[in-house]
Amino acid sequence: MGININRIISFTFGLGSALAGIAGVFYAMRAPGIEPLMGVQPGLRAFIAAVVGGIGNLPGAALGGLLLGLLETYAGGIPGLSNYRDGIAFAILILILLFKPAGLLGRAQVEKV
Length: 113
Prior knowledge:
Layout: H1 5-30, H2 40-53, H3 58-77, H4 85-99
């Protein structure tokens, strides 16, 4: 078809890296100081949202992020659960991996050996 696959892959990698860099700058502007591990929590939450929705599924990742955000916000409003917001995110991850490993909107694929 005349599409250079290597050029598209390089462009996609560069665009993703640039967007991640811009997001990192914006995140660092909100923090009082810069430290090496300051992006671990948002990165883990993004990973959990992608796994909950289904890896490689953009609407699923958006649904997973929305679901994760709603559940953590709801838990933060309950007096006894406000200290367990991070634990709730990991509990959701474990439940999804146990009962539906492909994610909420992902499809299980059979791998031929």
